[in-house]
Design a protein that fits this description.
single chain, 184 residues, Lipoxygenase-1, 2 domains, 5-stranded antiparallel sheet, 4-stranded antiparallel sheet, 9 strands, 15% helix, elongated
């Protein structure tokens, strides 16, 4: 008799556990959004080569591709580009942080893995609209917090020229885009 009662108690407990489990849709949302790092900014570290970026209308912009979206999206930045319409002289190094808006929807975090592509794009609209500038190296880091809320960062894309005499990429009218190789 005692064993039968124990079986009933165990069966009732099992039913309560199953009833309390989230639905399949809720489980999918939970697995789509595991505890992860949260990106609050992308940090670009850019070195120019022997040809400067003039500013005054000749600017460099950042675009990204995100998971499951093939289109290039401009990062929310100043309309004057990463260089804020300023001149970047030859052989100079610049660090620029671009804030990433908080994620919306079922997943309240922006994990670093969401970024699948990074592109630098130059627009020549200044007084010397036929211009060029040399990119010598580029590093792109995510900046934010880890899954425990501790400040963290990590490299997501990078490349550099192998020689001082040859730029990594020369931005000219016919070649105004450069896709930075991803390297999580």
């Amino acid at each position: 008799m005692r064993q039968v009662r124990l079986q009933h108690v165990l069966a009732a407990t099992l039913l309560l556990v199953v009833a309390a489990m989230p639905s399949a849709r809720a489980q999918r949302l939970v697995t789509d959004c595991p505890p992860n790092a949260n990106v609050s900014a992308l940090r670009f570290i850019i070195q120019t080569g022997s040809n400067d970026l003039r500013g005054s209308g000749d600017n460099v912009y950042a675009l990204v591709q995100v998971l499951r979206r093939p289109d290039w999206r401009p990062l929310p930045a100043d309309s004057d580009g990463l260089n804020h319409d300023a001149r970047w002289s030859a052989w100079s190094v610049h660090a620029v942080d671009i804030p990433i808006p908080p994620a919306t929807g079922g997943c309240p975090v922006t994990p670093p893995e969401i970024f699948t592509g990074v592109r630098l794009q130059t627009q020549f609209t200044g007084p010397t609209a036929i211009d060029a500038w040399d990119l010598q190296s580029v590093l792109v880091y995510w900046v934010g917090v880890d899954e425990h809320g501790v400040p963290a960062s990590g490299l997501i894309a990078h490349n550099r020229s192998l020689t001082r005499t040859t730029p990594l990429h020369r931005f000219i009218l016919a070649s105004a885009n450069y896709d930075v190789p991803m390297g999580h």
